[in-house]
Amino acid sequence: QLADALAAAFASHLDPAQVAARAALGSRFTWEHNAALTLAALRSIL
Question: What integer pLDDT is reported at residue 44 of this predicted model?
Answer without folding.
Answer: 85
